[in-house]
Design a protein that fits this description.
It is a single chain. The chain is of the alpha+beta class. The chain contains one helix and three strands. The protein has a three-stranded antiparallel beta sheet, with helices on one face. Strand 2 and strand 3 form a beta hairpin. The longest helix is centred in the C-terminal third of the chain and has 18 residues.
Length: 77
Amino acid sequence: MDTNSDKQMYKVVAVKKIATPEGMPGDNWHRYLIRCDKSEIEGMKPGTLSSVTQHAESVAEDLNARSGGAWTARKRV
């Protein structure tokens, strides 16, 4: 039986340009938001919209890969 179809997945839900965080160099910063059910992960990264979006998608893929295997014992029932 395939149970992956009903499994919640981390997804990038937003990437937006922001002001440079205080004390950080550069002027092309973006904030990204990754969500899975009620969990949210926020990150900030300098770069183009495209490069930060690719980074956020990679983070979401890594989180989804980690949510299987050894972590299944922590899954909600």
